[in-house]
Design goal:
The protein has six helices and 35 strands. The chain is mainly β. A hairpin with an 8-residue loop joins strand 24 and strand 25. The N and C termini lie far apart (164 Å).
């Protein structure tokens, strides 16, 4: 903002005008809004000097009261403008120079009109807001340490701002002192830095500061001081494959989780459940040099949660989480309702149970019971919907229904029974059996198994077999060499269920020949034949006798 304008040197005409009585003092011009306006002739009130175009209203004092105005007023006005150094006249020199020439020749009473024609200067531009430092770097931690160096890492600040980020500076000091030492000469843009040339055995505090045009941020500091020495073996947790996903146990089971790890010297082990220390009354923890065991004798639903194990060696640590879910059988459905009954069907609707056993519901079992017997029968199992239609009910009977919920553990101990009873009404239905045309099963005889040629031995009974079908039952006849075999006792003829056989008792060589089986009925006849050869057995001793 410009300062207050410097005082203006008064001309003799103004000095003469000040001797005249004034009704009110002239107010000072505003320092910024407009350039200063010369005072009107004596006798003119401030309100009368405001309208610039009305020039005839400006002179309010007679000429005889200002004797010096005739000869010295123009020269004094020019001299006054030359010596004046107000900020407004310096900001608009062009306007002042253009108005100075007529002011020398014009009388003093025309000054207000000329001053009102001066233009207002432009306003200065608004300066940009000052730069703001960033927020503190996040998650400062130890990445590596040995006998003479320390490596730390961190994350980018949460808030950076429009001015950007120039880099980071790393500072450290020994424990018990406040002498912070800058670790590097120039800012580093990386999120990891190695502090070298340290002394083994020192205990150091380390902090990281983000720098931008707004200055330094709040420091991000390590949670604990770091001892400078060689680590035997960094801590490393080895979660068994079976525990890398969600571990599910049933209520009442024993929980025994063994978590192996590495680390030298002996790591410090701690457990958290859902971010809080574990309850030692419920959970037993046993730690050794190589593993940690979490033991619960009898699992309960409250033991479910996310367990976090932390293994720490000095400033190094490793963490792992195990999700434990304790489940049990669900509760019964909240409600079961009989929606409608029609024909031999009943429509049911139910709502899920309030207690799902700490795991999702996998299905429902629907059962029905006849009011007469009271016995329950399952009609739907592993059913996934919340509505069902039970069919094939018996006319004239009344039924009630119940529904069980089911999850991965098993079916609910209790069920929910419908309050309404589904009654299947009897209707006047007259059963008319369908009429079927009588089928004609008549069939001409047909041999399904023919006779096969055979060879028999003299004196040994043989049998000829074949099979035939036909409707009505065909009549069977046997022929030998086209001659009907009568009631000769040497031959035995059998026909049973379509199986036809001819038994020849102790045949001789004369019984050989062609045998034919003929089947006859009203639809026709069929015949099959075979050749029988009867051989004589010649003993070796008989040939020698001859």
């Amino acid at each position: 903002m410009p300062g207050k304008p410097a005082p203006i040197k008064k001309s003799p005409a103004k000095k003469a005008a000040e001797k005249a009585p004034e009704p009110a003092p002239q107010p000072e011009p505003a320092p910024v809004e407009a350039p200063p306006v010369e005072a009107a002739p004596v006798g003119t009130a401030p309100a009368e000097a405001a309208p610039a175009p009305e020039v005839e209203a400006a002179p309010a004092v007679p000429a005889e009261d200002t004797p010096a105005a005739e000869g010295s007023a123009p020269a004094d006005a020019t001299e006054e403008r030359a010596e004046s150094t107000t900020p407004t006249e310096a900001a608009a020199p062009a306007a002042e120079d253009g108005a100075a020439a007529p002011a020398a020749d014009a009388p003093a009473d025309t000054a207000p009109a000329e001053a009102a024609a001066v233009e207002e200067p432009p306003k200065a531009p608004t300066p940009p807001p000052p730069a703001v430092p960033t927020s503190a770097p996040l998650d400062v931690s130890v990445d590596d340490v040995n006998d003479n160096s320390l490596t730390i890492k961190w994350n980018v600040p949460e808030t950076i701002g429009d001015s950007g980020l120039d880099g980071y500076t790393i500072e450290y000091c020994k424990d018990g002192t406040k002498d912070w030492v800058v670790a590097q000469e120039e800012l580093t843009p990386a999120n990891r830095y190695c502090i070298k040339n340290l002394t083994a055995g020192d205990l150091l505090h380390v902090r990281v500061v983000a720098v931008n045009p707004g200055g330094r941020s709040e420091p991000g500091t390590l949670a604990e001081p770091v001892p400078i020495h060689e680590i035997g073996e960094r801590p490393k947790i080895r979660i068994p494959r079976a525990l890398r996903t969600r571990t599910v146990k049933q209520v009442g089971e024993q929980i025994n989780l063994v978590i192996p790890f590495l680390g030298k010297p002996k790591p410090a082990v701690s457990w958290l459940k859902d971010g809080q220390p574990v309850d030692t009354k419920r959970v037993s923890i046993r730690n050794s040099d190589r593993d940690s065991i979490l033991f619960v004798r009898t699992a309960e639903r409250a033991d479910s949660g996310v367990y976090e194990i932390t293994v720490k060696v000095d400033s190094f640590e490793d963490k792992a989480t195990i999700t434990l879910q304790i489940v049990e059988r669900p509760g019964n459905p909240a409600s079961v309702k009989l929606v409608d009954t029609w024909g031999f069907n009943a429509a049911l609707e139910w709502t899920p149970p309030k207690d799902n056993g700490n795991t999702e519901i996998t299905g429902y079992t629907v059962q029905k019971a006849d009011r007469k017997t009271g016995e329950w029968f399952s009609v739907l199992e592993h059913y996934h919907r919340l509505t069902a239609t039970v069919s094939d009910l018996i006319m004239g009977n009344s039924y009630i229904f119940r529904v069980f919920a089911e999850n991965q553990v098993g079916i609910s101990e209790m069920s929910t029974v419908t309050k309404e009873v589904a009654t299947i009404q009897k209707t006047g239905i007259v059963y008319m059996p369908p009429e079927y045309p009588e089928h004609d099963f008549s069939e001409a005889p047909k041999f399904t198994t023919p006779l096969n040629d055979r060879a028999a031995t003299v004196g040994y009974t043989t049998k000829l077999l074949c099979s035939v079908r036909g409707s009505p039952k065909p009549k069977i006849e046997w022929l030998k060499n086209r001659v009907i075999i009568g009631d000769d006792p040497k031959f035995r003829k059998i026909s049973n269920q379509g199986i036809c056989s001819l038994e020849i008792r102790k045949p001789c060589t004369f019984d050989g020949g062609v045998y034919t089986c003929i089947a006859k009925n009203a639809q026709g006849e069929a015949a099959v034949s075979c050749k029988l050869e009867v051989k004589q057995v010649i003993l070796p001793g008989a040939e020698k006798d001859k």
